[in-house]
């Protein structure tokens, strides 16, 4: 091997050593950055502004990932914790969700009262009505005479559910033939005086009372002409 070849081999070896050194340096920088940043965790960011005392819903937030060490101790990483909560102040778009931003929804608003009635466990609840939900209440009534048709009425709209009780077995001896359910669930609502009277009247005299879950954010107004239904209306 002549001198030129030896110089070439030496330069090649130096290049390999430099490359290994550079690679090791890059790995060191990456590892150092990872050690500084740490593991990432889930956080939630507001998609839009939320006004004070507005009930919070999953759709108002977007899921993001960020280094755990950059997350404040009050940041919420579980979106389930917003259920039944309202904004304590104006929440700005892009802000991270914090525990000090939210408070429990007030059980009752001024002028409201708690009213609990028994609802058919199968047709009225079906496991989908939870505290904080908004529902419409339907009641079916028999005609005043044998010639009068039966009718279904929307007796209360946008009733707020405060609590869903434990399923209770009904007394078979109390069955008047119209109610065939053997189990019911006590549902507690926040209602004004008039709606409370409507609900208690329906529980006492209606053949059946049903709940209809209202989708959040939708138009919940129901025209007066659509609040009463008779079978003859479809003819």
Which SSEs are present, and which pair or pack?
Blueprint: H1 3-37, E1 40-46, E2 61-67, E3 85-87, E4 102-104, E5 113-120, H2 121-125, E6 134-141, E7 151-164, E8 168-169, E9 183-191, H3 193-205, E10 208-213, E11 228-229
Antiparallel strand pairs: 1-2, 3-4, 5-9, 6-7, 6-10, 7-9, 7-11, 8-9
Integer-rounded radius of gyration: 32 Å
Dominant shape: elongated
Instruction: Provide the residue-averaged pLDDT.
Output: 79
Helix-strand makeup class: alpha+beta
Number of strands: 11
Describe the structure in your own words.
The strands form 3 sheets. Strands 5, 6, 7, 8, 9, 10 and 11 form a 7-stranded antiparallel sheet that branches. Strands 1-2 form a two-stranded antiparallel sheet. The chain has 2 domains: 40-104, Antifreeze-like/N-acetylneuraminic acid synthase C-terminal domain (Type Iii Antifreeze Protein Isoform Hplc 12); 113-234, no CATH class. The radius of gyration is 32 Å and the shape is elongated. The protein has helices at 3-37, 121-125, 193-205; strands at residues 40-46, 61-67, 85-87, 102-104, 113-120, 134-141, 151-164, 168-169, 183-191, 208-213, 228-229. The protein is built from 3 helices and 11 strands. It is of the alpha+beta class and 235 residues long. The mean pLDDT is 79.
